[in-house]
Amino acid sequence: MLINTVLMFLRELLPLFLLLATLLVWHRSRWQRFILLFSFPAVLMLALFSSNMLWISEQLDGFGLELLYSLLYTGCFVLLCMATAKRAVAMQLSAFACACLLSINGSNLLLYIWLPTQGNTDPSALLLGMALGVGIGSSIAVLWYYLLTELQQWRMLSYRLLLSLLGVRQLMMASALLIQSDWLPAGPQLWQTGQWLPEQSELGFFLQALMGYEATPVLSQGLAYTAGLGLLLWCSRNLQNNIRSAQ
Amino acid sequence: MSSLRRYLVTVLIALFTLISFLAALQSYRQSASRAEALFDQDLQVLASSLAQQYQAGSQQELGLALQVWQNNQLVYRSPLAPETPMSETAGFSEHNFAGKRWRVFHQTPTALLTVIVAQPLQQRQQLADEVITASIYPVVLSLPLQALLIWLVVSKALSPIKRFSAQLASKKANDLTPVELEQVPAELDQMLKTTNLLFTRLAEAFEREKRFASDVAHELRTPLSVLQVNLHNASQQWQQSGIADPQGSMLALRAGVERMSALIEQIMLLNRTNPEHFQARTEQLDLAGLCRQVVADWYPQIEKKQQQIELIGLEHLSLKGDAFALRLLVSNLVGNASKYTQAGGAIQLELTTHAEKAVLTVQDNGPGIAPEEYSRVFDRFYRVGGDRHQSGTLGSGLGLAIVRDIVNLHQGQVRLGASDSLSGLKVTVELPL
């Protein structure tokens, strides 16, 4: 129970924390406003989805939840593309992108916490697992924030690339869900790297949260990834000026 | 980073949390894995012990001792178990047999049946140690990593202070420009502002002092020149009119005005050669040629006092220096030697090299200076014997101060001593080649 809880929290929180930390570096001069803009829609969407999860999951032949999640992941990616291109509303769009991601991961976590507490599970193991998962995830986010602050100061290209990887990761998640619900043809498997870097390893977890690492990607995922990364890099070509003006 | 405290607190807490939690997670995994292996081992032992019951004559070593008693008769015992009961009391106990200490469990499920199982204590401790070691190992291994990361984080946090002190240390004596740092943390901001304010005020004060001394000297030079001309004219008119001057007032007046003029000239030169203000224009020059020019300049006065002067040593000595400043240095030394040496005395200039340095020695057979005065004669306005030197020569007390400033400008050295050959003063100047 303990190890499962830790892994569950890391899987859900790490991508969100990494995206939040990355965008906070961008909007650090007005971080309070960013947090406010992010919190309101996030709480609203989280409350809406988690309270209607059963109904949502029963829609569209039982794939309602997968399709909603893939829509939110795609929305997150599109919002990030627009945020990097549109200086005037960059903060609002970035905050809303984070809110989309939180509504997915938050719903999953609430479901995970809610279900075991209904049974005979030891709550101390759940609480300890939550503390470990939140602690590790938030620590990585803090270190990530300071690392990006340094990178942004010295190498703007690295910051742009990392932000693009985080953005295209959401597209990768969306495509995986669409393939899972047969809304997107999978195509042949591109490669198999599970023996060198398993998805369940610590590094695999981190890379999955950062750039949507998959040990066995299929053709449609590869195409989506390449196109998404190219689009985001193109949209963020003036990111340096946008960030400087924001600061 | 905007604040050192915030940076250190957040990053160190994050590091500690991350490493400790990862170590705890790893301990959990390793302990669970080890415990699972032990449970599997127990299952194997149990299966083997049951199998032995049905294999007559089997002597396989189990690691466990097992006895089954029925109606006080031993109906089964494993190879390691003795023929007597391993324990008489129900429950857990410890006993010695077969040369080992055993942990024994005695159970009587029915009145006629007794099962006794024993395990060597050493084996139990070994198994417990394995589980504990597996859980402690990641925590211990994470300590050097934590230490390294703390060192890196603290070094990074203190880097603005390091840059600040490095900039202060690299400043030259005359550099009073403000210190500039990128991304000044809040804790250093006030210190930087105060230091820069101090530099600005100091620069302004120096500028005022420089201008004041220079302006005063400059303003006094013109009226003094007029005074000198008028005095000369008045003196000639007195002579033509046959006005007697039994007290020598006119001569004393002329001497006073001349001294004041010389003093003002020296003040201006001192101001010009002060290392805090002077920007040396170094060039390759011939010190021997420069000395010859200075001797030629002073020759009329030397001849007037019927003194002997000679320049010995190297005929050419090339070094890098400021021509104006070095000429003033040699001029002050030769001028002092001539002024304070009696009429008919001797002056000697010698040029040599020693250990990558040019050495200029000026000696005379004048009265010299007492050794206890050597350090003080370089002070501004200090004159041996007070305002009026025992030689009766008028002076400003700035000549050697200017010499010291020029030598410092060239990273050289100047020292005084008694002349070996001429019995007067010897001034030695060493300048890097």
From TrEMBL, chain A:
Transmembrane spans: 6-27, 34-55, 67-85, 92-114, 126-147, 159-179, 218-235
Keywords: Membrane, Transmembrane, Transmembrane helix
Domain of life the protein comes from: Bacteria
Keyword Transmembrane applies: yes
Protein name: High-affinity iron transporter
Lineage: Bacteria, Pseudomonadati, Pseudomonadota, Gammaproteobacteria, Chromatiales
From TrEMBL, chain B:
Matching CDD domains: HATPase, HisKA
InterPro entries: 2CSK_N, HATPase_C_sf, HATPase_dom, His_kinase_dom, HisK_dim/P_dom, HisK_dim/P_sf, Sig_transdc_His_kin-like_C, TCS_sensor_his_kinase
Residue ranges of every copy of the Histidine kinase domain listed in the record: 215-433
Residue ranges of the TM segments: none
Molecular functions (GO terms): ATP binding; phosphorelay sensor kinase activity
SUPFAM superfamilies: ATPase domain of HSP90 chaperone/DNA topoisomerase II/histidine kinase, Homodimeric domain of signal transducing histidine kinase
Location (main, coarse): membrane
Protein name in the entry: histidine kinase
Organism: Rheinheimera pacifica
